[in-house]
Amino acid sequence: MSAFVAQVGKEKRTALAQWIAEAVLFAYKMSAILRFQSLRLDHNRYVR
User: Using H for helix, E for strand and C for coil, what is the string for the chain?
Assistant: First the structure.
């Protein structure tokens, strides 16, 4: 029984780690996009 519980716990941890990695990657992409857009806005302001 304990082996089964350990296996389930391990799978849950793996899934959680994967989810966290996805969330971090998504947040990084979003911040990069936002930074790029604000840079473009600044560029447009200076060009005019």
Answer: CHHHHHHHHHHHHHHHHHHHHHHHHHHHHHHHHHHHHHHHHHHHHHHC
- Mean pLDDT, rounded, of the chain: 88
Q: How far apart are CA 36 and CA 30, in angstroms?
A: 10
The answer, as to whether pTM is greater than 0.70, is no
Residue 18: closest CA among 26, 7, 29, 6: 26
Identity of residue 11: E
